[in-house]
Design brief:
This protein is mainly alpha-helical. 58% of the residues lie in helices and 5% in strands. It has 5 helices and 2 strands; from the N terminus they run ααβααβα. The chain binds calcium ion (2 copies).
C-alpha cells in the first residue's frame, strides 16, 4: 500500500511538471504556445527559432513540439518572472 501511494504521488508529480510550461507561458490557456506567447515568455527566442520549433508548421507549438524543443535545448528551461 505504501509503494502504491508513492507511485501515485510520483505520477501526479510528473503530470504537474509536464504542464508547468503551459501554466506560465500559455497566456490564453489553449494548451499551445503561439509566437506571441513564446516571445513574451522567452525573450531569448526570436521568430526564426519559433518557426524551427514548429515542426508541423501550423503556427503554434503543441506539447510535443515544446517537449522536443526543450530536449534539444532550443527552448530554455522555464524562466521566472
Ligand atoms: Ca496559447
Ligand atoms: Ca505546431
Amino acid at each position: 500500500m505504501t509503494l502504491r501511494l508513492i507511485t501515485l504521488t510520483a505520477a501526479i508529480g510528473l503530470g504537474a511538471a509536464s504542464l508547468a510550461w503551459a501554466e506560465s507561458a500559455d497566456s490564453d490557456g489553449d494548451g499551445m504556445l503561439s509566437l506571441g506567447e513564446v516571445l513574451a515568455a522567452y525573450p531569448s527566442i526570436d521568430e526564426a527559432t519559433f518557426t524551427a520549433m514548429d515542426g508541423n508548421g501550423d503556427g503554434v507549438l503543441d506539447e510535443t513540439e515544446i517537449q522536443a524543443a526543450r530536449e534539444s535545448g532550443t527552448l530554455p528551461a522555464q524562466q521566472d518572472g
